[in-house]
Each structure stands twice: as C-alpha cells, then as structure tokens.
Amino acid sequence: MSVRVLVDTEAPTLRVATPADADAVHALIAAHLDEGRLLPRTRTEIAGHASRFVVIERARALVGCAELAPLSPSVAEIRSLVVDAGARGQGVASRMVRELTRRARYDGFDRLCAFAHDPAFFVRAGFSIVPHTSIQEKIVRDCASCALFMACGQHALVLPLYDSVFDASTGGIVDDLAVAYAH
Predict the structure, then answer these.
(1) Which of 163, 142, 18, 147 has the alpha carbon at shortest distance from 71?
(2) Per-residue pLDDT tens digits for 140-181
(3) Which of 47, 71, 112, 143 has the most CB atoms around it within 10 Å of its CB?
(4) Has residue 1 been placed in a domain?
(5) Interatomic CA distance for residues 60 and 139, integer angstroms
C-alpha cells in the first residue's frame, strides 16, 4: 500500500497590498464581520489606502491582511487584522504584526496601538493593555462617532517603539532622562 502525502509547495508570501488587491482584502474583511471584531471597510477606502496594508498570499489567494493606519505624527494603529480561518494558527497574524511594527518604527512613530476584544495575541507580541483614554488620537478619529463608544468591549493596547519606558497606568511615555535621574 502506498501513502501519498500532499504538501503545500507554495509558502505564504508577505507583501504590501496594491489597489488591485482591494476586492480580495474587502472580501476577507467582510467575511469576518460576523465575528463582531472588525469594523466594516469600503472597497474605495481599502484601494485608497492599499499601501498601508500588508497581505499574506498563499496559492494566489489572500489568507491575511492588516493595515498600519497613522492616527497622528507619533501614533499608528494596527487595524483590520484578519486571518482566514483555514490559515489560523500558522503564524500569519504574527508575521503581519511584526512587519507593521517594523514599518511603524521605520516611519518614525513613537507608539503603535491596537484595539482587540481578546488582547492575548497582542500582549504576547509585547503590547500593554492601557486605558482607552491614553490613546486620544483613536477616540477623536474613530471612537467618538461610533455607536458602540464606551460599550464596545475592546481592550486598548500600546507598544512603545523606542527605548523609553511606557507607563501603563497613564498610557504615557516616560522620558529616558527622567528615568535615569529617578534612580
């Protein structure tokens, strides 16, 4: 008796999205809206911000996407992080978050934030849970106009992107010199 082993010979590829990916990214996001963890996005919005997205492609199909959205000159947000159910548990989300973290540092942001119903993934990636009010940029840009404002059930998470100390109790960055003189 012979045994045939099927091997996925095409490794998942991480790349920057293009406007041509807008339909596939939109479909991936729309397919996961029922989980109640994402905000809807329009194709036009996705196409207009395509270069802010990274995607994971396997066998010419998108299995993951995430966006690095600037909230201010110093704060960016990881949003629309989606992994197809069939690709979960394979490191797809981690690869995208690592890449967006690298891009946020390169682009000169001081902090990277995310909002999640289940914060465990982001905590494992080095983010800290903070009060929502510590990310005023997000509140002004998105939360204040949302029907679920103050009742969304999401956790605010922050990752400092340089060598200062992040104070989770205030949501602020403590200057390196202040820390040095305090000891």
Answers:
(1) 142
(2) 776 666 666 666 778 889 999 985 554 555 545 454 434 433
(3) 112
(4) no
(5) 37
Domain-embedded: residue 6: no
On whether residue 157 sits in a domain, the answer given is yes
Q: Under a CB-based contact definition with an 8 Å cutoff, are residues 61 and 10 in contact?
A: no
Q: Give the separation between CA 109 and CA 95, rounded to whole angstroms.
A: 19
The full DSSP string for 31-100 is HTGGGT-S----HHHHHHTGGGEEEEEETTEEEEEEEEEESSSSEEEEEEEEE-GGGTTTTHHHHHHHHH
Q: Whole-angstrom Cα distance, residue 18 to residue 22?
A: 7
Structure tokens at 169: 């109790």
- Domain-located, residue 154: yes
- Residue 156 sits in a domain whose CATH number is 3.40.630.30
Instruction: List pLDDT tens digits, range 12-39.
Output: 899 999 999 999 999 999 988 877 778 8
